Amino acid sequence: MDTKIYLSSPHMGGTEQDYVNEAFDTNWVAPLGPNVDGFEKSLESYLGKGNHVAALSSGTAAIHLALILLGVEKGDEVICQSMTFSASANPIIYQGATPIFVDSELDTWNICPNHLEEAIKDRISKGKKPKAIIAVHLYGMPYKVEEIKKISEKYEIPVIEDSAEALGSSYKDKKCGTFGDISILSFNGNKIITTSGGGALVSRNLKHKEKAIFLATQARDNAPHYQHSQIGYNYRLSNISAGIGRGQMEVLDKHVTLRRKMNQFYKNIFKRKEGINLFSEPTSNYFSNHWLSCILVDANICGFSSEDIRLQMSENNIECRPLWKPMHLQPVFKDAPYYGATISENLFKIGLCLPSGSNLKSKEKVKINDVLIHFIDN
Ligand SMILES: *Cc1c(COP(=O)(O)O)cnc(C)c1O
């Protein structure tokens, strides 16, 4: 049998190993060093002037520190987009706070501005103003940046921009990862670039970067001995991982182009079939890195479901996956308040993520094409 075709797998560009070797040669085998500094500089220059980056051990750690920097404490409430990966919401619980989940809208599949405002008003009327809003650019598609910012400013609630899936995306030519009061990135193995595991906290406020690094290195006070006035974490990125990141930054734009080509590849396949809609930018203001290409399948029109496609692909050793299951439907969050209707629930029911890696070979694309077309036409 052919080797498995994955949804999204690591794609090395070539120079990663040079940076890693340099770390070995100079014995910088630690959670600090020249690669960590160099990776941060590279991300700062990519995101543009005024952005400060702290390289961390994961995107989850970055969200956790963002909550701490915004003063989220036990008993507080934090609003979070319901349709997302659990890592967006878990750190709210780490802080002893309560997640308030909000439904998506259909244009971007991200947090719905109307339900967001409804949630804020209702929580305030119940006596608690939410401490932060976690908004996510799912699959690389920017959320409704202007609408969310307006609401954030109106109610004076900061936004944590979860840009884990959207490095390389932009809205009105401004890069994702620069829209939140604090933004986060992920370099997990399946993301558009990887450090084999890692993340970053991004802010326009230099103090945020400094405080994040302080907390990520065990919150050590300035003293010759080990002195601590607050609880710290071991969340810094290793210099080995950061070396991989420096190499990956050299191919990021190429990866974006290749992922967008994969989206075009699926557009050509699915144009033949009514009832299958490829997730696409709602207007030309939106530029998605198309981290994953996704479809919605209307079984009433097609006569088959997204799950039927997934099973057929799986039989051919091609990995597909349902969309993120909304957090308000997850057993672990069953008691959390929820605002919205059934948009995210329906997207979950009829959606599917397709193999989207920047490293898919021509032979693999031919196979994907053949299996899909054969299934659709029969
Ligand atoms: C991957 C991901 C994260 C978490 O990043 P890690 O680096 O895996 O901890 C957070 N949010 C979203 C939306 C993600 O896809």
Descriptive notes:
It is a single chain. By secondary structure, the chain is an alpha/beta fold. It folds into two domains: 235 residues, Aspartate Aminotransferase, domain 2 (3-Layer(aba) Sandwich), CATH 3.40.640; 125 residues, Aspartate Aminotransferase, domain 1, CATH 3.90.1150. The protein is 38% helix and 14% strand. The structure holds pyridoxal-5'-phosphate (PLP). Pyridoxal-5'-phosphate binds next to helix 3. The site of pyridoxal-5'-phosphate has 14 residues, from helix 3. Pfam families: DegT_DnrJ_EryC1 (PF01041). Its cofactor is pyridoxal 5'-phosphate.
Task: Summarize the structure in short.
Pfam families: DegT_DnrJ_EryC1. The chain has 378 residues and is α/β, with parallel strands linked by helices.
